[in-house]
Amino acid sequence: IQEPEEKKIALELLETEQAYVNRLHLLDQVFYTELMKEAKTGKTVPEEVVKMIFSNISSIYQFHAEFFLPELRKRMEDWNRNPRIGDVIQKLAPFLKMYGEYVKNFDKAVELITAWSEKSPPFQELIADIQKRKVCANLTLQHHMLEPVQRIPRYELLLKDYVRKLPPQSPDRGDAEKALEMIFMVAKHSNAAIAEMERLQNLWVVYQRLGLEDDIVDPSNELIKEGPIQKISTRNNSTSEKYLFLFNNMLLYCVPKVIQVGAEFQVHLRMDVEGMKVRELKDTEFPHTFLVSGKQRTLELQARSAEEMNDWIK
């Protein structure tokens, strides 16, 4: 007899979950445990570093191995009498928030593995040793570590498919739809964590280019636009090259440094966005110019094109 479509998907969920638990076992019980043992006895690598690399993988492993996988298995064994998985997935969804921490830490973890492999040959050797084992299937530690990052999107896809294939009158419909909504929210949550991480990363790079002036380093700032600009000097009718950084709360008016040691720019003026006025200047001698006036002072600026001027004004 042909198995119903939704059962095939539920079985795929169970099979991939089993494979996933094996992967988590490898990460937590093999890599993490052995590197930790080595860190405690030898002086290959500080314990702190090993903990930072693996983040909260132990909690993730315990949850899947001791709770979700057994529950799912019970459901599938009982399928013919009671075809449902929606309720189990609803129980799973809130725990997936644990992944936020792991996902946020992932890039840092990979950097640490690379750095300590260079610094500590025994550390590198132990990892290489484990990677040679059959259970690693010729894949690197970094590759295995990517698996939890990709697991939530996988749940989302499988569950979407499952809900699509459910017959309208299935007893699991209500639960499965609710479960999908919960998983969708968690997936959005972990994407937001990644986006936030990227925003902070970009912000930090900008701060370094500005020489880390402490009064402008603020993690809540958002960079909106940056670029070169000509400053018009009305006194002697000339222009000079400057550079602008526009944040959500301030405009930094900078001078590019000639000698680039450390910072690229020197902040000449910081203008609050609050109370700032911007308007186009119809100047025949200097096209594409606009006026920025704030509490601190007024600047006459010239862009390279009308389009660029309009971008800045906007």
From TrEMBL:
One of its GO terms (biological process) is cytoskeleton organization. It is found in: Cytoplasm, Cytoskeleton. One of its GO terms (cellular component) is cytoskeleton. Keywords: Cytoplasm, Cytoskeleton, Metal-binding, Phosphoprotein, Repeat, Zinc, Zinc-finger. The keyword Kinase does not apply. It comes from the Eukaryota. InterPro entries: DBL_dom_sf (IPR035899), DH_dom (IPR000219), FYVE_RhoGEF_PH (IPR051092), PH-like_dom_sf (IPR011993), PH_domain (IPR001849), SOS1_NGEF_PH (IPR055251). Residues 5-193 form the DH domain. One of its GO terms (molecular function) is zinc ion binding. Residues 222-314 form the PH domain. Pfam families: RhoGEF, SOS1_NGEF_PH. This is FGD2 protein. It comes from Leucopsar rothschildi (Bali myna). The gene is Fgd2_0.
